[in-house]
Amino acid sequence: MTKNHRGTLFLLGAALLWSMGGVLIKSVSWHPLAIAGTRSAIAACIFLLYLQRPRFSFSFIQVGGALSYTGTVALFVLATKLTTAANAIILQYSAPVYVALLAGPLLGEKTERKDFLAIGMVFSGMSLFFFDQFRWGNMVGNLLAIASGWTFALLAIFLRLQKDASPFESVLLGNLFTALLGLPFAFHTLPGAGSFFPLLLLGVFQIGTSYLLYVEATKVVTAFEACLIPIIEPILNPVWVFLFLGERPGPWALLGGGVILTAILWWTLPRAD
Fold it and tell me: What is the DSSP string of 101-145?
């Protein structure tokens, strides 16, 4: 098995674990930032066990990756609580488009005309999410999910920039930042009685184990592939939420999600040759 094939398998494994996020987050009765912080505190323990002796340089790239990670996981939890799980995850997966915009100045990769056509399709699909029944919560949640897509794109780039170093420390540092961010909200109320097991699963598997796989993969795949290959997550995430919690995305959101996923697949598949 080649390194690239192993990286692809790691990305698929990470995406499968990530896809549990919607149903698990919605199963926890607690403040969203308290959930994000506790989940990351558990994940930080997983990373410490794996690394044993982490090496913190606090370089711009390492801290940039950590802050991008914090933005990704915290914004996603907030978005999942405020809008549907389908909206949150599909809007976050506009990230490959942002990688195309940022790859030139940050990675020296050329952006082609087809990239800009895909960008137009993705933003058209994103606009459809705002045609569903108007509620301030959904509106804010959708905007937070879009912001999470930007930070996810930056995370992939910052991790890729550390491919010859140790990008694991960026994610460990990001988990520590997120834990500190959520700490003040953890003491307002206690989580519901049935929330402890979902929180444990979120920390150990949904981001702890998954990001170990993801970071290892970024050493051998491109930043673009690191955002694209896990595309099974936005397909599976709302399926689990519908099966276990009965939450349905609105018709405009379904249409917009279809446009976004079609655009990304159309944009990418020819490049896989």
Answer: HHHHHHH-PPPPHHHHHHHHHHHHHHHHGGGSSP-HHHHHHHHHH
pLDDT tens sequence across 72-126: 999 999 999 998 887 888 889 788 778 877 877 777 766 677 777 777 787 787 7
CA distances from 22 to 19, 158, 195 (A): 7, 25, 14
Determine the Cα–Cα distance for residues 160 and 99; give it in Å rounded to an integer.
12
Q: Where are the domains of the chain?
A: 3-272
Q: What are the start-end ranges of the E strands in the chain?
A: none
Distance CA 253, CA 52 (A): 44
Please check whether residue 92 is in contact with residue 76, taking contact to mean a CB–CB distance below 8 angstroms.
Answer: yes
pLDDT tens digits, one per residue of 119-164: 778 778 777 766 765 465 578 888 999 999 999 999 989 998 898 8
C-alpha 145/C-alpha 75 separation (Å) is 7
* Cα–Cα distance, 126 to 233 (Å, whole number): 17
Gap between the Cα atoms of 33 and 115, Å rounded: 34
Tokens of 98: 């942002």
Give the span between the Cα atoms of 58 and 76, in whole angstroms.
25
3-state SS of the chain: helix, strand, coil percent to 5? 80, 0, 20
Predicted pLDDT of residue 155: 94
